Amino acid sequence: MAEENAIELRGVKKAWGDVVAVQSFDVEIRKGEFFSLLGPSGCGKTTTLRMIAGLEEPTEGQILLEGHDVVRVPPYRRNVHTVFQDYALFPHMTVNKNIWFPLKMRGISLSDAGQRIDRVLRLVNMEGYERRLPQQLSGGQRQRIALARSLVDEPAALLLDEPLGALDFKLRGAMQKVLKDIQRNVGITFIYVTHDQTEALTMSDRIAVMKSGRVHQIGTPDEIYSRPATAFVASFIGEMNFLHGRRLQAQGEMPQAEVGGHRFRASRSTITGTPGSGDEVLVCIRTERVQVNSHRGTDHEVEGTVRRIVYRGTDYELTCDLAGQEVRAVVSAVDWNPELRVGTQARLGFNAADITFFPQAEEKEIVQYTTEAV
Amino acid sequence: MGERFSAPRALLRGIPITVWMLCLVAVPLGYTFLISFFQVEGLQIAAKFTLKNYRLFFTDPMYSGILLKSMLLALAIALLAILAGYPLAYMLSFRVRRGKQALFMLSIIPLWVSYLVRIIAWRTILGNKGVINSALTSLGLIQEPLSFLLYNRFAIAVTLTYICIPFVFIPVYTSLEKIPRNIMEASSDLGAGELRTFFNVVLPLSLPGLVTGFIFAFIIALGDYIIPQQLGGTQGIMFGNLIWSQFGFAFNWPFGAALSFILLAISVTILGLTSRFGSTEGGFLSE
Lengths: 374, 287
Description:
The complex is a heterodimer of chains A (374) and B (287). Chain A is 22% helix and 36% strand. Chain A has 374 residues and is α+β, with helices and mostly antiparallel strands. Chain A has a 6-stranded mixed beta sheet with strand order 6-7-8-3-9-10, with helices on both faces. The radius of gyration of chain A is 24 Å and the shape is elongated. Mean pLDDT of chain A is 90; it is low at 370-374. Chain B has helices spanning 2-35, 52-59, 61-94, 100-108, 115-126, 131-138, 153-177, 181-189, 194-223, 226-231, 239-247, 253-279; strands at residues 39-41, 44-46. In chain B, helix 2 (52-59) packs across helix 12 (253-279). Classes of the chains: A alpha+beta (374), B mainly alpha (287).
């Protein structure tokens, strides 16, 4: 069964002296999978990628490529290629020669490589640029040539290190589709490093969310988004409300907590052990799951004073005061009721299915992008 | 509006450099060129036009023989200086992590020591009672001091190579430092070991520095006359000495000037042939 995996990490750890960059990473990446390493800068995602490429040596653990441990194998003998953030094209070689390079290293002459070069150029939609030098190409074009160069000798996996990081917003969106299409066409395993949650969510089959060298969660985009394993994951991906609450006696299967005198039930709680009532907990709900003045019935309904309204084109972000804590709600512009103004009361509805409890201790790991943090 | 004033202002700004170039380069060079067509009458330089000086060079095989010999020696010295300087620059640029700056300074510190002092130092190393001979003698490896070390072309080659190493090292090191490290990582990642990365990526990208270093070394070696004079012995006469002697005890400035111009023409030709490699960055190796 191990052959099903393109790449397997077993207890991979990287430390420079006392500084731990990656701690004990275990994962099995299937053949043909689009796997993302997602996290803020300094989380160890690039170091992990470089260890798979062979550009860094792990302090501990095993890295298996198609079932073989490659920790001692130099990068030039590993059947994986890296696409670097700033492309790393050879400036003294034409596009043609750049793409030929990995084939040349395998002893294939330029004339024999012609067909394969043509094929990857077609794949990245860059026919006709064979004789250009890298400095005569735009950023997006260079990126595609770097991709073609890495694909031409059909490696077992492609390692992409924030490949779209240097491109502007619109081009990035277009390149995401190009990348995903190419990956689907060639069926090669992609390991994709990014700090952009949208990029990870839209492109990946699975995502590993990392912070400070630790893997917080590995799962499909849906699992990561709807069932975050830690408060950090919940805060890093999407927009999440974190409310301070106190634990109450569980009601049947469902844990309960109280926020500002209101009682909330949660469908999920990551708090382990037997919690005593009175313990502090983080009560979490996605901003788009908070119903505002809804006619649909919800499990919990509370009144809050509108503090701030931000128009964002497709929707409005509403910030309400709930017993001294802020609750943000996103309301589609289509459903917007213009009677809602700053200072008016809004009826906020919560469903237990959308609520998760996290241990209070995880609060320090939350990534805050609220106005208070600015 | 700025356009209208910029032309005269640019002219004004150009005056200092023009005067400087005229006084220090054009006038002396022009004067030398002029007297290379003059002749000596008694102990006077007579301003009578003649091609005799150039004719002498091209008809007497002794002169062209010395020139050819000097060029071959200079070529050998330039290549030796590259063989010594390039690996030094490569190691310092790619292998040394700590103390890089200090090692760089150490590599170019010989440039701060007086030229003559360094020549005398080599005489002390290579001489009959020098470092090498006394070491070998005291070890019992030789009875008589090795005489091939000093006062011949070997001594010139060794010392001039030593003089030229920093002039190769500096431009090569600079061009190696300019190579983005991730390009070398990409090369390794795409299947090239260190040797193939060197020949396919590092060497082509450092070629501008290498060519510059070669030109420096070659021209320094070709024009030098002090080292041949001090360490060359009887077989050590080089083209530089020939020129020097015309201006010195032979007191034939016109002939010396003609020889100088022949040397200058050769240097400029070499510079012209190689500078297209030295000046362009990167792009020259592709078709």
